[in-house]
Structure to design on (130 residues):
C-alpha cells in the first residue's frame, strides 16, 4: 500500500514538474513576445514623441505670439483711451473758450447798443435843445 502511495506521489510530482516545465516554456514565450512588443512599441513611439515635442514647441510659439498681440492690444487700448481723454479735454477747452467768447461778444453787443443809444440820445437832445 505504501508503494501505491509513493507511486501516486511520484506520479503527482512528475505531473507537477511537467506542468511547471510547460508553464516555464509558456512564460519564456510570453516574455519574448512582451520584449518584442515593447521594442516595436518603443520604436513606433519615438517618432510620435518627436512629433509631440514639435507640436508643443509650436503651441508655445503660438502662445507667445498671442501674449505679444495681447500686449499690443493693451498698449493700443491705453493709447486710444488716452487719446479719448485728450479729445474730451480739448472739447471742454473749446466749450469754455466758445462760452467765454459768446459772453464777451454778448457784453460787447450790449455795450455797443447802449453806446449808440446814448450817442443818438445825446445827438437828438442837443439838436432838440438848440
Amino acid at each position: 500500500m505504501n508503494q501505491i502511495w509513493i507511486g501516486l506521489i511520484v506520479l503527482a510530482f512528475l505531473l507537477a514538474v511537467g506542468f511547471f516545465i510547460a508553464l516555464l516554456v509558456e512564460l519564456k514565450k510570453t516574455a519574448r513576445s512582451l520584449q518584442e512588443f515593447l521594442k516595436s512599441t518603443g520604436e513606433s513611439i519615438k517618432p510620435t514623441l518627436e512629433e509631440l515635442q514639435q507640436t508643443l514647441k509650436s503651441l508655445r510659439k503660438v502662445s507667445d505670439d498671442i501674449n505679444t498681440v495681447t500686449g499690443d492690444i493693451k498698449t493700443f487700448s491705453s493709447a486710444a483711451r488716452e487719446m479719448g481723454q485728450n479729445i474730451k479735454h480739448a472739447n471742454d477747452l473749446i466749450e469754455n473758450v466758445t462760452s467765454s467768447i459768446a459772453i464777451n461778444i454778448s457784453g460787447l453787443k450790449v455795450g455797443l447798443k447802449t453806446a449808440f443809444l446814448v450817442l443818438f440820445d445825446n445827438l437828438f437832445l442837443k439838436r432838440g435843445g438848440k
